[in-house]
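Researcher: First entry.
Model:
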Amino acid sequence: MKKTADIAIAILFAGFALGAFITAIAFSAWWHYITGCMFAILAYVCYKAD
């Protein structure tokens, strides 16, 4: 059973990742793709944590 906090943090990081990708597309800012990937990895790690 996943802890509610783990899921909430994963959703938060996923939101940051989505925001970073939107920023990267909107402003042609390539470094935001890296930021988005980092947040996506953090979200995955938080979600998969036991």
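Researcher: Second entry.
Model:
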Amino acid sequence: MHDLINDLAKVVSGEFSFTLVGNYSSKISGRVRHLSYATTDYDALDKFEGIDKAQVLRTFLPLSHRRSSRVDSKVQHDLLPTFMRLRVLSLAPYQNVVQLHDSIGRLKHLRYLDLTATPLKKLPEFVCSLYNLQTLLLDSCMCLVELPNSIGNLKNLLFLRLHWTAIQSLPESIVNLSNLHTLVLSECKNLTELPTNMGKLTKLERLTDFFVGKQGGSGIEELGKLKNLQGELRIWNLQNVFLSQDGETAKLLDKQRVKELELSWAGDTEDSQHERRVLEKLKPHKDVKRLSIIGFGGTRFPDWMGSSSFTKIVFLKLKGCKYCASLPPLGQLVSLKELRLEAFDLIDVVCPELFGNGDSKIRILSFEDMKEWREWNSDGVTFPLLQLLQIRRCPELRGALPGHLPALEELCIDRCPLLMTSLPRAPTIRQMELFDTSRSVQQTKYESGMLSLMVQKFHSQNSPLQGIEHIGVSTTLGKIEVHCCDSLKLFQPKSFPNLEIVENCYIYLLFC
């Protein structure tokens, strides 16, 4: 059926669409409207010989998975200006397009311009005279530092993507893009604030990142005017919210279609109570599915964090909340599947109240950079669905992990020198990673076939696996990696009684 549909599409498109394979452009019809072609390392002008016959060409679209393609400069200078009816133009794969030729500014019918991953440093002003332009793609233009001041002239622009650019600021005129539907600013590391009056973009449905201005830029109240936002939203620089009641003006509680929300503070706080009040006012809609709170400077989380009304949250990340001495009770988040806790400086005990009593539905659980964490008390809590457990850089953690993890598939313990007294019973374990430890695994039995085992920076004459009985009844271990360990004694034959085949074995900087 797929082949029949494909054949039908070719018949319907007929002579109006042409895909250039190799150098057969001489076969092109003068009636062709849509041209696509496979790029090579270097696309010379003669590759397109005869294409100038297609005076009604609407689409010029290179197709490539290459990252280092180059194009003859004459394609920009001489060929493209002949297609005055062009609607769709892409120069996306070309790594030598460091600037656009003035002739591009004469393509007045252009609707779609894709410059993704080109090394442009500056978008020329003449692009802003392309009044019919609806889509402008600049993703991964890592050298691009600014947009033209007149970009607000593009009244018909619907989609503007600036993901992973070096943009330092946006022109004030951007708020005049009254029809803008999508503005992607993710991974713009140099951007710290947005122009004033961003709330004028009332048709905006997708805004990935909002930067709260300190004095001159957009205040958080501008978010409240953007009533149609949906999808993902990251709010940066919340330390610039000077009045706690201003947090309520963002109207996050009304943004039902925002499903992924990240709230982020930067720098040290001077008033932890103020930050808590701000977060209290930033309560999201109950339909949010993914929530991250980064750099929060309060001493405790607001009450809404553990509210049973958030029945759809599946992902929660709390990071860099270094003044919090307690974690919020999350047992009422009935849909929570992934929990990540990072960089809590004052937490010394993880209590059962974090997960609630009974069976937790969490599938992925990660702890990182918990400097003072000493004890994990899991009394009364079970993790029947937990598949991935990561504990990284928790130097004071000791004692035992939860005793039975029946669904666990992957376990990573990284730089937790006091923890390795016992590991959980995990009949479905497939991958184990032990990094930078000096203690051995004790009294642990694995009954399933493990596919991957990695041991790195083990500093002891004993094996880290000496207490493990029967790593797998399987006769095959997919991969063993040993990095920077003091002795080959870490692998004792009794730990692998059935092992016949190791498919991949890597040993790096072993000090025998």
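Model: Note on the second entry: The longest strand covers residues 476-483.
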